[in-house]
Design a protein that fits this description.
CATH superfamily of chain A: Glutaconate Coenzyme A-transferase
CATH class of chain A: Alpha Beta
CATH topology of chain B: Glutaconate Coenzyme A-transferase
Number of domains of chain A: 1
CATH class of chain B: Alpha Beta
Largest sheet of chain B: 10 strands, mixed
CATH topology of chain A: Glutaconate Coenzyme A-transferase
Strand content of chain B: 25-35%
Structural class of chain A: alpha/beta
Order of helices and strands of chain A: HEHEHEHEHEEEEHEEH
Distance between the termini of chain A: 43 Å
Helix content of chain B: 10-25%
Number of helices of chain B: 4
Number of helices of chain A: 7
Strand order of the largest sheet of chain A: 4-3-2-1-8-9-10
Structural class of chain B: alpha/beta
Largest sheet of chain A: 7 strands, parallel
Distance between the termini of chain B: 20 Å
Oligomer: heterodimer
Chain lengths: 242, 225
């Protein structure tokens, strides 16, 4: 049977995301942020009260009143795992964090990337020089290799990944746009359910195999969003999805 | 006589030590200025953590592509020969020893090479980004900074009092008053402003300045933009 991972609409794309799940969300700032998937999940929360108590894994913790910031505003997020929860307009996270209403696991950026890579690659732990001797290494095992000290870090996996791609074929092979790929190829491999919004869905064979960045094996569902919104542009236009 | 170098002049001085064809990461904020002052005839290739090698200047206002940004989330452009890559590859470049130099800002630098540049203490929302990764792996880790804090306390100290970014990682410090190498756990003075005595400089420095051989005059062009 000819494989086809496309789904009919956003509701079908997001089906099965439940309270208490962990979600990896691609993007670095607005670059590569899957705004339509995020906003559709907020719509579902508004109409059904679910999903809530989510753990969100992203480099940042939202900007302005759209995307992840709007999820936090809506009260869907219990915990952020990120490297840099500051932005041009970090109100959403900052207010909840200072009020003790959201938990933060702060991870150095390269360690966050490598933990996700390890999660996707089946490597439960690894050693890195990053954070050795700092507050962020407290409580973690340390090992000496060839005369240098390293910190043991654990893999990071998630129930779901939400990814923005440029092209997808029906098998799930993906390309990305410019620097928008950032964490997405790693996250696609580290989640149980990987959901992709792509600017264009094409037939298998239309993406040159040499150009595939994420092989389709890592992808479960694809929805075409031809005219996707850009988080940074929304933020600068003062748009609020809260 | 120059009382102290401006930020642009400190960035200019640091740029003079970047060799042709180097791979370089500049920390967000003040260190980004270093890119503007590459000596004529030299061309470094700049790396940004979010996944670009060989990016160029900011585009004109209105020409921004928000999928094409640097680690500070500013819009950038590409130069011929640019490359995109995902975050695990990007930090393999950082930690794997593949960058020639990383230039970072600092709250404090200690004579043992420890750096504090990510947190001023437990207040507010903590954020680290790539700071703790960038201090490991580059062949040279240089700091550019004012020599003292806004209220006049030394930023070059015996031991850092603020939360550390990395241990024993800094190899050279370019300040508003001097250029100092860190060797064997000591500050070694290489350059200082001509109008400043060693005693005056030492009084503004929180650990002993070692003098080994010639101390050159530190100078930079005026009116740098």
């Amino acid at each position: 049977m000819d494989m086809d991972k496309t789904v009919a609409d956003l509701a079908e794309a997001l089906a099965g995301i439940e309270d208490g799940m962990s979600l990896m969300i691609g993007g670095f700032g607005g670059s590569g942020a899957p705004i339509e998937l995020i906003h559709a999940l907020i719509d579902r929360f508004r109409s059904t009260g679910s999903p809530k108590n989510l753990t969100i894994i992203n480099n940042n913790a939202g900007n302005g009143r759209v995307g992840i910031a709007a999820m936090i505003d809506a009260g869907m997020v219990a915990k952020m795992i990120c490297s840099f929860p500051r932005s041009a307009d970090p109100r959403a996270f900052t207010e909840k964090y200072l009020a003790g209403e959201i938990e933060l696991e702060l991870v150095p950026q390269g360690t966050l990337a490598e933990r996700i890579r390890a999660g996707g690659a089946g490597i439960p732990a690894f050693y890195t020089p990053t954070s050795y001797g700092t507050d962020l290494a407290k409580g973690k095992p340390v090992g000496e290799f060839d005369g240098r000290n390293y910190v043991q870090e654990r893999w990071l996996k998630a129930d779901v990944a939400l990814i923005k791609a440029e092209l997808a074929d029906r098998h799930g092979n993906l390309t990305y746009r410019k620097a928008g790929r950032n964490f997405s190829p790693l996250m696609a491999s580290a989640a149980t359910l990987t959901i992709v919004q792509a600017r264009s869905v094409v037939e298998p064979g239309e993406i040159d195999p040499e150009q595939v960045v994420t092989p389709g094996l890592f992808v479960d569902r694809i929805i075409e969003i031809a005219d996707a919104q850009q988080e940074e542009a929304l933020m600068r236009a003062g748009v609020a999805y809260s | 006589m120059t009382e102290k170098l401006s930020n642009a002049q400190i960035a200019w001085r640091a740029a003079q030590d970047i060799q042709d064809d180097s791979y370089v990461n500049l920390g967000i904020g003040f260190p980004e200025m270093v890119a503007k002052f590459q000596p004529p005839g030299r061309q470094a290739i700049f790396h940004t953590e979010n996944g670009i090698l060989n990016f160029g200047e900011s585009p004109a206002a209105g020409e921004e592509d928000w999928d094409l940004i640097n680690a500070g989330k500013k819009a950038v452009t590409l130069k011929p020969g640019a490359a995109f890559f995902h975050h695990a590859d990007s930090f393999a470049m950082v930690r794997g020893g593949h960058l020639d130099v990383a230039i970072l800002g600092a709250y404090e630098v200690a004579e043992n090479g420890d750096l504090a540049n990510w947190s001023t203490g437990p207040k507010g929302v903590p954020a680290v980004g790539g700071a703790m990764d960038l201090v490991h792996g580059a062949k040279r880790v240089a700091v550019i900074t004012d020599h003292v804090t806004k209220d006049g306390r030394p930023k070059l100290v015996k031991r850092c009092s603020l939360p550390l970014t990395g241990v024993g990682c800094v190899t050279r410090v370019y300040t508003s008053l001097a250029v100092i190498d860190i060797e064997n756990g000591r500050f070694v003075l290489r350059e200082k402003l001509a109008g400043m005595s060693l005693e005056q400089l030492q009084a503004l420095t929180g650990a002993e300045l070692l003098v080994q051989g010639e101390i050159r005059d530190l100078s930079a062009p005026e009116n740098l933009q």
